[in-house]
Amino acid sequence: MVFTDVLLVEDDQAIVENLTGFLKEEGFCVTAVSGQAAAMEALEAREFALVLLDVTLAQGNGYSTCTAIKSRGDIPVIFLTALGDEFSVVTGLDMGADDYISKPFRPRELVSRMRTVLRRSGRSQRVMKIGNLSVDMVKGTVEKEGREIYLSAMEYRLLLIFLNHRGMVLTRSVLLEEIWDAAGEFVNDNTLTVYIKRLREKIEDDPANPQILLTVRGVGYRLGV
């Protein structure tokens, strides 16, 4: 799995839409529900690495929902709530929550604290597999058939972009925007072609007949495995 699965229990649709879009860009797959009953049904249906939980819900109560979630297993829970007073924070932590973030919150701070909780709980996604490649997200290393291969910072970044959009066709314009952001300088179309070529030379068994990084003619590229 490429994305880290997160359950968002929140009944404010605007927050759901904005947060879902942002978290997707950060490598999270968000399933959103509006109340306690739906949250428990979702947890029965699949496994999640983390739960983001509002205290004030239209259906049910965040504190009781946290207790119910924790009774199923040690799933990390982060409260997201407008109730930021000391009593509410202490109550949430006493209920077993792993962190407590008051609204309004800064999205990047939330992501940082989510990753901290995931690492602390041992649920952080560490290694991704693509064919005969293993990508260690913590160490920032790539192995091919058990042997480490060296990727430049930009080649590694490019590989991560494809990993975080597995199953999707990425246009050259999208890739250029992503690489430009990472490099902090303008990257042109010819440079992207060079990066793709160099990456294929390192990760493919036969770069002339790629099986991992495929060209979708007239559109862009996608992962083939």
From TrEMBL:
For whether the record's keyword set contains Transit peptide, the answer is no
Q: Which residues bind DNA?
A: 125-225
Q: Which Pfam families match?
A: Response_reg, Trans_reg_C
Q: Which GO terms describe its molecular function?
A: phosphorelay response regulator activity; transcription cis-regulatory region binding
Source superkingdom: Bacteria
Residues annotated as carrying 4-aspartylphosphate in the record are D54
Key words of the record = DNA-binding, Phosphoprotein, Transcription, Transcription regulation
Response regulatory domain segment(s): 5-118
Span of domain OmpR/PhoB-type: 125-225
Per the record, the GO terms for biological process are:
regulation of DNA-templated transcription
Q: Does the keyword Coiled coil apply?
A: no
Q: Can you quote a single GO CC term?
A: protein-DNA complex
SMART domains assigned to the protein according to its UniProt record, in alphabetical order? REC, Trans_reg_C
Which InterPro entries would you find in this protein's record? Answer: CheY-like_superfamily (IPR011006), OmpR/PhoB-type_DNA-bd (IPR001867), Sig_transdc_resp-reg_receiver (IPR001789), WalR-like (IPR039420), WH-like_DNA-bd_sf (IPR036388)
User: What is the role of this chain?
Assistant: May play the central regulatory role in sporulation. It may be an element of the effector pathway responsible for the activation of sporulation genes in response to nutritional stress. Spo0A may act in concert with spo0H (a sigma factor) to control the expression of some genes that are critical to the sporulation process.
What's the name of the protein?
Stage 0 sporulation protein A homolog
